[in-house]
Here is the input.
Amino acid sequence: MTSRLHKSYWLRTSIIFILLILFLVPFYLIVNNSFRTTELFVRSPFTLTNNLDLKNYADAFVKMRFLSGFQNSLIITIISVSILLLTASMSAHYMVRNPGRVSNTIFAVMVASMIVPFQAVMIPLAKIYGSLNMYNHTWTIIFFYTGFGQAFAAFIFHGFIKGIPLELEEAALIDGCGKLKNFFRIVLPNLKPVMVTVLILDVLWIWNDYLLPSMVLLSPNLRTLPLSTYGFFNTYSVDYAPLMAGLVLTILPVILLYLACQKQIIEGVVQGAIK
Amino acid sequence: MQEKSLLRRSGIFLAFNGVTLFAFTAVLIIPFLYGLFLTFTDWNAISDTFSFVGFQNYAKVFSDKEFLRQFLITFKYVIISALLCNLLAFTLAYFLTSGIRAQNFLRGGFFIPNLIGGIILGYIWKFIFANVLTQVGKAFNIAWLQTSFLTNPDRAIWAMIIVTVWQYAGYLMMIYIAGFVGIPRDVQEAADIDGAHGLRKLWRVTIPMMIPSFNICMFITMSRGFMAYDLNLSLTNGGPYGSTRLAAMHVYQKAFQSKLYGIGQSEAIVLFVVVAILSVTQLLINKKREVEV
Here is the structure.
């Protein structure tokens, strides 16, 4: 009996390990060959590199204007997510603590709006904001993210705030604390766990988003990392090795973030899906 | 006094909801309603004026053979990738909650593709389909691997499916793991005492308890499938010969390349209706289950 259980344990373990290797082979191939030449990659992609030559990286770094893309992505992500966290949590708090026709209607419209795919508003969006000459500005895309992220963030905050006991706030309000002060002093510190969830989901969404920035950020100086990668592949499609180095450079920030806070990221993503 | 308090209350309302409502309305509500309005006009990019055409755009959409063909391709892609993705994710979750050593490390590994944007994933796999798998095919003399998936109109859609499964399996696995962990201990113990083991226990006890997770995961994969664009753009760009041009890409090209905004927008609304039906169905199933339980 024990040996049979033992056998099945090792069988399961080996199947899972083989599957994981298959899952991660694409990354091995890209990282490995980013140190080699295109010629070697085409001939023998699996052979482990015998050097850690950074020439392809230097090439990619300059040609895809990595620094500029990274900086733009960082600015857009940080500002958009900060605005989203603050405004959505305030709005959700108001709606939970002031139930009534107005609050309920706003909340219902927001929840319903979550099923609208981006494609359904993309064309009118281009027409309206294109004719207002608002395209090609970093602030425009930050404004767009604030609008698009609002419903989901408010929804998650709403669910969480409902569970916070009202007594906590009542005490502060009786003590003569204003509503805004009450929010910042009492409510906000209690939102930390749900803030992390929304933060992670929104950072991953905005950092990786392609379609919206590709419509709004037309000038090369404003490009975010996914756009730089796309531009790089469209301009230099013959020499594979630097392209792979470019991919590794683009992936690296996310992987580093993942290694630093894997637990929170996984929890956040699962929470976001289940709610 | 009454007036002042009304003013004050409006002030507080705006302080808490002002930015939210302004951004939400300006970015989502107005464009959506305006977009709906546009589908009843003959607006294009060239002229500034437009007139009402009733349901003509929708009639054109449903008589456009190309659109219908691509919608069918999208359905095929969505259904196959959703099924495979869920099957793989469920299997992974089942194994990774059965007490394998280093299971957190393993779970973390399967999740990695999900962190990366579709554009990047598409480029990674472009190399693999075009250069690596063809090499493997030659080395082991496997005929069907020797030519690239991406140049064959019958197989390119499978390249999309493979990468989609790879991208989402780890993500769904995490949701299934949460489901497995949430199955009450006493239910499992009762099954053990009653002598249900292995596959029988899986089929009779575990799977019925996992239906809410199935429901969420099917919804996620299907709605994302209908909206898929990034991966489609970088991996196949709709080719070869339009064999992988999914609905979202069709809408984009109709509007921004053919400059037929009215028709493009009508197609987008059709896409919206499909996703909406999916969401409402999911919601109803959830409601029904809650009543039963």
Residues 59-292 of chain B form a domain with the MetI-like fold fold (CATH 1.10.3720.10). Chain B has one domain: 59-292. Chain B has 13 helices and no strands. Chain B has a mean pLDDT of 88.
